[in-house]
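Follow-up to my earlier ticket, as requested here are the two runs.
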Amino acid sequence: MADTGLVKNNYKSNQAIKSLLEKCGIKKDKDVEELYLSNQDLSEVVDLTRFKFLKILWLNANKLRSINCLTNNFLLKELHLENNQLTTICGKLRHLTCLQVLMLHNNQLTKLERVAKEFNKMQTLHTLNLFDNPVSQEPGYRLLLIHTVPSLKLLDRQEVGKTETDQARRVYDQEQEKIRETIAFGRRSEGPPELYYPPGLERSRTIDIESKNIGNSYLRDNPPYDSTEEAVNARRLKKSVTVFTTFDWSKIPRYEERRQMDKPFDSPEIITHVYR
């Protein structure tokens, strides 16, 4: 009986596809980029592998409990599965890495972590709807999806803002967050270790210009100088040397002059400038 029902449902979806293609005047499968199969009372859909260039598919408002028809439709960009009776999508959608829009609201999806894992390779997915599913009531639902799919811009018809993105990172990526907080510009840096005075200790040594003991630096091992000029010159000499080389084209004859000259002309002179 189950096989008979499957054959009947496949026949029904085949007829719906055939009718649609005839209506649109499409004769070749390779020319099909969109399929509109909404409101067809379908509980199963025939495999759509033959439509290799399919990009948009509407299967919403049917009676689908599972989705097994998209095995090789790797170019899908937009998929509408809302208003069905889906109980699971595990292993059914993860290969659709080109998806940009995915509508799954008003189904019966549960188990948040399994659902989220289905999306972790969809790097171009920017719009996702999962509201009106049991899974959307689970704790941490929104933050987990934002963390799993960094490309999301719209989740359940609400914009994904920077505040939520940062919060999701702090919750689900704590090790990386600790590293970010220790680098420069993540927080105020105390400088390279063991070079500057330890934080918390008052710097008793202050630069006194009148005493002519000028160090021109915070470094502990920096030698004092007798004058500001010596300190500046010492620091200048530690800078890297920049060499800039050019050709002196002013002594090279122009095109018309070269044509009229009887003797060969010299190569251009190389001029080198050294900067600190």
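Run two:
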Amino acid sequence: MAILSDYTEENQEQPMKPIEKEQEKSSSSAPKEEENSSSPPKEEENKKLKPNKSNGLDMENYSWGQSLQEVTINVPVPPGTKSRFLVVEIKNTSLKVGLKGQPLIIDGEFFKSVKADECYWSLEDQKEISILLTKQNKSDWWKSLFKGGPEIDTQKVEPEPSKLSDLDTETRAAVEKMMFDQRQKQMGLPTSEEITNQDMLKKFMEQNPDMAKNFANAKMMPNSKMMGMG
């Protein structure tokens, strides 16, 4: 886990047992949109929620969002908080976030694993913890941030348009070829495949001049016959 702050190893001590008592409460926080609702039936509890603009959920004490590659978490803290007073522990399968000597704000097991050595956190303006997680599997949308937590409807996520620079070499080459061919067709020009075939034919003719002459004569034959018939 990489840390973008003045947080030090010596200040990384965890609060003792009183914090562990709040574990269940913090990991099962309800989304903001359900704060004032009465206890719903079991069918509604299992109903998937509409994701926020970041393709995650706005919870009571934090919010999270995601792309196919990463997960972002924002945790508000009291203004003026110093990083040395924070507890942020990111592992491949779990996350703990809170203030030293106080109940943890977040304590849960990730819905899916992350690459802990490629995860970062920082304290923004001494009032919000910003966490960036790198997913192990970069081809799946998470239904929930933590196992057992509220789930979103992944059919309603809105992925950002992919950039060519984000694609692997092979996929990028294929996309660029399709884009080139589309432009060529719109302008009435040969496609990349047609250009390749023309170049191959040209090189062949240059390497075999005699065959090129025969090819040219054969191509002219129909016209010659028609002229003779006239």
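The only thing I checked on run two: The longest strand covers residues 70-76. Let me know what else you need.
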